Protein backbone atom coordinates (compact mmCIF):
# COMPACT_ATOMS: atom_id res chain seq x y z
CA UNK A 1 0.00 0.00 0.00
CA UNK A 2 3.05 2.24 -0.34
CA UNK A 3 1.64 4.54 -3.02
CA UNK A 4 -1.81 4.91 -1.41
CA UNK A 5 -2.97 7.90 0.61
CA UNK A 6 -1.56 6.83 3.99
CA UNK A 7 1.25 4.77 2.41
CA UNK A 8 2.70 7.77 0.57
CA UNK A 9 2.86 9.83 3.77
CA UNK A 10 4.38 6.90 5.68
CA UNK A 11 7.09 6.57 2.99
CA UNK A 12 7.86 10.29 3.21
CA UNK A 13 8.12 10.24 7.00
CA UNK A 14 10.37 7.15 7.01
CA UNK A 15 12.64 8.75 4.39
CA UNK A 16 12.76 11.95 6.45
CA UNK A 17 13.84 9.79 9.40
CA UNK A 18 16.77 8.52 7.31
CA UNK A 19 15.38 5.20 6.12
CA UNK A 20 15.95 3.78 2.66
CA UNK A 21 12.33 3.17 1.65
CA UNK A 22 10.87 0.76 -0.88
CA UNK A 23 7.26 1.62 -1.65
CA UNK A 24 5.48 -1.54 -2.75
CA UNK A 25 2.08 -1.69 -4.38
CA UNK A 26 0.19 -3.21 -7.30
CA UNK A 27 2.07 -2.88 -10.61
CA UNK A 28 -1.31 -2.41 -12.30
CA UNK A 29 -1.51 1.11 -10.83
CA UNK A 30 1.08 2.37 -13.31
CA UNK A 31 -0.40 5.88 -13.66
CA UNK A 32 -0.36 6.35 -9.90
CA UNK A 33 3.22 4.99 -9.79
CA UNK A 34 4.37 7.78 -12.13
CA UNK A 35 2.60 10.46 -10.04
CA UNK A 36 4.02 8.92 -6.85
CA UNK A 37 7.55 8.99 -8.27
CA UNK A 38 7.13 12.73 -9.00
CA UNK A 39 5.73 13.33 -5.51
CA UNK A 40 8.76 11.76 -3.82
CA UNK A 41 11.38 13.04 -6.29
CA UNK A 42 12.72 15.48 -3.66
CA UNK A 43 14.00 12.49 -1.65
CA UNK A 44 16.84 11.90 -4.10
CA UNK A 45 16.25 8.21 -4.70
CA UNK A 46 15.75 7.33 -1.02
CA UNK A 47 12.23 6.14 -1.96
CA UNK A 48 11.87 3.69 -4.84
CA UNK A 49 9.00 1.57 -6.13
CA UNK A 50 8.74 -2.22 -6.36
CA UNK A 51 5.62 -4.08 -7.52
CA UNK A 52 3.88 -6.63 -5.33
CA UNK A 53 0.47 -8.20 -4.93
CA UNK A 54 0.17 -8.79 -1.18
CA UNK A 55 -2.66 -11.27 -1.71
CA UNK A 56 -0.19 -13.58 -3.50
CA UNK A 57 2.35 -15.36 -1.24
CA UNK A 58 4.85 -15.97 -4.06
CA UNK A 59 4.72 -12.32 -5.15
CA UNK A 60 5.65 -11.32 -1.56
CA UNK A 61 8.42 -13.93 -1.36
CA UNK A 62 9.92 -12.78 -4.67
CA UNK A 63 9.71 -9.12 -3.58
CA UNK A 64 11.63 -9.75 -0.35
CA UNK A 65 14.24 -11.86 -2.20
CA UNK A 66 14.70 -9.07 -4.79
CA UNK A 67 15.13 -6.42 -2.11
CA UNK A 68 17.59 -8.56 -0.17
CA UNK A 69 19.69 -9.21 -3.27
CA UNK A 70 19.69 -5.62 -4.49
CA UNK A 71 19.68 -3.54 -1.31
CA UNK A 72 20.05 -5.69 1.79
CA UNK A 73 17.94 -6.72 4.72
CA UNK A 74 14.43 -5.48 5.47
CA UNK A 75 14.49 -3.97 8.97
CA UNK A 76 11.10 -2.23 8.97
CA UNK A 77 7.89 -3.50 7.40
CA UNK A 78 4.72 -1.39 7.23
CA UNK A 79 1.62 -3.20 5.95
CA UNK A 80 -0.72 -0.50 4.62
CA UNK A 81 -2.31 -2.32 1.67
CA UNK A 82 -6.07 -2.42 2.01
CA UNK A 83 -9.32 -2.46 0.08
CA UNK A 84 -13.00 -2.08 0.90
CA UNK A 85 -15.93 -4.11 -0.44
CA UNK A 86 -18.70 -2.39 1.51
CA UNK A 87 -22.22 -3.79 1.66
CA UNK A 88 -24.51 -5.15 4.34
CA UNK A 89 -24.06 -8.84 5.15
CA UNK A 90 -27.46 -9.62 3.64
CA UNK A 91 -26.15 -8.48 0.24
CA UNK A 92 -22.49 -9.55 0.57
CA UNK A 93 -21.33 -12.13 -1.94
CA UNK A 94 -18.71 -14.75 -1.04
CA UNK A 95 -16.47 -13.00 -3.60
CA UNK A 96 -16.71 -9.67 -1.72
CA UNK A 97 -15.84 -11.45 1.51
CA UNK A 98 -12.90 -13.44 0.07
CA UNK A 99 -11.43 -10.59 -2.02
CA UNK A 100 -11.24 -8.41 1.06
CA UNK A 101 -9.75 -11.15 3.25
CA UNK A 102 -7.12 -12.00 0.61
CA UNK A 103 -5.76 -8.44 0.63
CA UNK A 104 -6.45 -7.08 4.12
CA UNK A 105 -5.72 -10.19 6.21
CA UNK A 106 -3.83 -12.74 4.06
CA UNK A 107 -1.67 -9.84 2.83
CA UNK A 108 -0.39 -9.21 6.36
CA UNK A 109 0.45 -12.92 6.78
CA UNK A 110 2.09 -13.10 3.34
CA UNK A 111 4.39 -10.13 4.00
CA UNK A 112 5.21 -10.87 7.65
CA UNK A 113 5.88 -14.54 6.91
CA UNK A 114 8.51 -13.56 4.34
CA UNK A 115 10.45 -11.10 6.55
CA UNK A 116 10.21 -12.75 9.96
CA UNK A 117 13.00 -15.29 9.43
CA UNK A 118 15.57 -12.67 8.40
CA UNK A 119 14.57 -10.30 11.21
CA UNK A 120 14.87 -13.14 13.75
CA UNK A 121 18.31 -14.15 12.49
CA UNK A 122 19.57 -10.55 12.63
CA UNK A 123 17.92 -9.90 16.01
CA UNK A 124 16.12 -6.77 14.90
CA UNK A 125 12.85 -5.87 13.24
CA UNK A 126 9.98 -3.40 13.35
CA UNK A 127 6.60 -4.43 11.96
CA UNK A 128 3.68 -1.99 11.85
CA UNK A 129 0.34 -3.25 10.58
CA UNK A 130 -2.31 -0.69 9.69
CA UNK A 131 -5.58 -1.88 11.22
CA UNK A 132 -8.59 0.44 11.65
CA UNK A 133 -10.83 1.88 14.32
CA UNK A 134 -13.59 -0.06 12.53
CA UNK A 135 -11.89 -3.30 13.60
CA UNK A 136 -12.69 -2.30 17.18
CA UNK A 137 -16.06 -0.57 16.84
CA UNK A 138 -17.51 -2.29 13.77
CA UNK A 139 -19.07 -0.26 10.95
CA UNK A 140 -22.35 -0.66 9.08
CA UNK A 141 -21.70 -2.33 5.72
CA UNK A 142 -18.25 -3.52 6.78
CA UNK A 143 -18.57 -6.96 8.36
CA UNK A 144 -15.76 -8.11 6.04
CA UNK A 145 -13.50 -5.09 6.65
CA UNK A 146 -14.12 -5.00 10.42
CA UNK A 147 -13.41 -8.73 10.73
CA UNK A 148 -10.16 -8.45 8.75
CA UNK A 149 -8.97 -5.41 10.72
CA UNK A 150 -9.76 -7.07 14.07
CA UNK A 151 -7.89 -10.09 12.70
CA UNK A 152 -4.87 -7.93 11.89
CA UNK A 153 -4.78 -6.78 15.51
CA UNK A 154 -5.01 -10.33 16.90
CA UNK A 155 -2.35 -11.50 14.46
CA UNK A 156 -0.04 -8.67 15.54
CA UNK A 157 -0.45 -9.32 19.26
CA UNK A 158 0.34 -13.03 18.75
CA UNK A 159 3.35 -12.34 16.52
CA UNK A 160 4.60 -9.75 19.02
CA UNK A 161 4.68 -12.46 21.69
CA UNK A 162 6.54 -14.84 19.38
CA UNK A 163 9.12 -12.26 18.31
CA UNK A 164 9.80 -9.86 21.20
CA UNK A 165 12.79 -11.84 22.50
CA UNK A 166 14.32 -11.74 19.01
CA UNK A 167 14.39 -7.94 19.03
CA UNK A 168 11.32 -7.60 16.85
CA UNK A 169 8.37 -5.42 17.81
CA UNK A 170 4.99 -5.88 16.13
CA UNK A 171 2.31 -3.21 16.50
CA UNK A 172 -0.90 -2.11 14.90
CA UNK A 173 -1.98 1.45 14.25
CA UNK A 174 -5.75 1.90 14.05
CA UNK A 175 -6.51 5.19 12.31
CA UNK A 176 -9.87 6.89 12.43
CA UNK A 177 -11.14 8.33 9.14
CA UNK A 178 -8.50 10.07 7.02
CA UNK A 179 -9.04 11.92 3.76
CA UNK A 180 -7.55 9.42 1.27
CA UNK A 181 -8.79 7.86 -2.00
CA UNK A 182 -10.26 4.97 0.03
CA UNK A 183 -12.56 7.31 1.96
CA UNK A 184 -13.21 9.52 -1.08
CA UNK A 185 -14.76 6.44 -2.73
CA UNK A 186 -17.49 6.35 -0.05
CA UNK A 187 -20.74 8.05 -1.15
CA UNK A 188 -21.20 11.66 0.02
CA UNK A 189 -24.32 10.69 1.98
CA UNK A 190 -22.52 7.97 3.99
CA UNK A 191 -19.49 10.23 4.48
CA UNK A 192 -21.74 12.90 6.02
CA UNK A 193 -23.14 10.29 8.42
CA UNK A 194 -19.60 9.21 9.35
CA UNK A 195 -18.49 12.80 10.02
CA UNK A 196 -21.65 13.37 12.11
CA UNK A 197 -20.60 10.45 14.32
CA UNK A 198 -17.12 11.89 15.03
CA UNK A 199 -17.27 14.04 18.18
CA UNK A 200 -14.87 16.71 16.84
CA UNK A 201 -16.57 16.63 13.44
P1 LIG B 1 -5.69 3.91 -0.35
O1 LIG B 1 -6.75 3.26 -1.16
O2 LIG B 1 -5.27 5.29 -0.68
O3 LIG B 1 -4.37 2.98 -0.32
C1 LIG B 1 -4.42 1.59 -0.26
C2 LIG B 1 -3.31 1.05 -1.13
O4 LIG B 1 -3.30 -0.38 -1.07
C3 LIG B 1 -3.50 1.42 -2.61
O5 LIG B 1 -2.35 2.10 -3.09
C4 LIG B 1 -3.71 0.09 -3.30
O6 LIG B 1 -3.20 0.03 -4.60
C5 LIG B 1 -2.95 -0.84 -2.35
N1 LIG B 1 -3.36 -2.24 -2.57
C6 LIG B 1 -4.62 -2.71 -2.72
N2 LIG B 1 -4.59 -4.02 -2.98
C7 LIG B 1 -3.28 -4.39 -2.98
C8 LIG B 1 -2.60 -5.61 -3.20
N3 LIG B 1 -3.26 -6.76 -3.47
N4 LIG B 1 -1.25 -5.62 -3.14
C9 LIG B 1 -0.56 -4.49 -2.88
N5 LIG B 1 -1.15 -3.29 -2.67
C10 LIG B 1 -2.49 -3.25 -2.72
O7 LIG B 1 -6.22 3.81 1.15
P2 LIG B 1 -5.60 4.42 2.50
O8 LIG B 1 -6.67 5.22 3.11
O9 LIG B 1 -4.25 5.01 2.30
O10 LIG B 1 -5.46 3.07 3.36
C11 LIG B 1 -4.23 2.55 3.81
C12 LIG B 1 -4.50 1.55 4.93
O11 LIG B 1 -5.06 2.25 6.04
C13 LIG B 1 -5.50 0.47 4.55
O12 LIG B 1 -5.11 -0.76 5.15
C14 LIG B 1 -6.80 0.96 5.18
O13 LIG B 1 -7.67 -0.10 5.43
C15 LIG B 1 -6.27 1.63 6.42
N6 LIG B 1 -7.16 2.64 7.03
C16 LIG B 1 -7.52 3.75 6.33
C17 LIG B 1 -8.34 4.70 6.94
C18 LIG B 1 -8.79 5.95 6.23
O14 LIG B 1 -9.66 6.65 6.78
N7 LIG B 1 -8.26 6.29 5.08
C19 LIG B 1 -8.78 4.50 8.26
C20 LIG B 1 -8.37 3.36 8.94
C21 LIG B 1 -7.54 2.44 8.30
What would the keywords be for this entry?
single chain; 9 helices; 5 strands; Rossmann fold; two-stranded parallel sheet; three-stranded parallel β-sheet; globular; 2 domains; 13% strand; alpha/beta; 201 residues; binds nicotinamide-adenine-dinucleotide
Topology, pairings included?
Elements: H1 5-16, E1 21-25, H2 30-39, E2 47-51, H3 57-70, E3 76-79, H4 94-104, H5 106-122, E4 125-130, H6 134-137, H7 143-163, E5 168-173, H8 181-184, H9 188-196
Parallel strand pairs: 1-2, 3-4, 4-5
Bound molecules: nicotinamide-adenine-dinucleotide (NAD).
Residues 1, 3-7, 25-26, 29, 52-55, 80-83, 103, 130, 132, 175, 177-178, 180-183 line the site of nicotinamide-adenine-dinucleotide (NAD).
Description:
This protein is α/β, with parallel strands linked by helices. The protein has 2 domains: 51 residues, no CATH class; 124 residues, 3-Layer(aba) Sandwich (Rossmann fold), CATH 3.40.50.720. Helix content is 51%, strand content 13%. A 3-stranded parallel beta sheet has the order 3-4-5, covered by helices on one side. A two-stranded parallel ribbon has the order 1-2. α3 packs parallel to α5 and α4 packs parallel to α7. The protein starts with a helix and ends in a 5-residue tail after the last helix. The protein binds nicotinamide-adenine-dinucleotide (NAD).
Amino acid sequence: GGIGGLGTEICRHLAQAGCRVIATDLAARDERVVTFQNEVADFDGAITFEPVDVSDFDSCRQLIERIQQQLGSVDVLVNAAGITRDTSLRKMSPQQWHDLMHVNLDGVFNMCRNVIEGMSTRGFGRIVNISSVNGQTGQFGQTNYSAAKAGVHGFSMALARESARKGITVNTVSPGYCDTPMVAAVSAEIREQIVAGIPVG
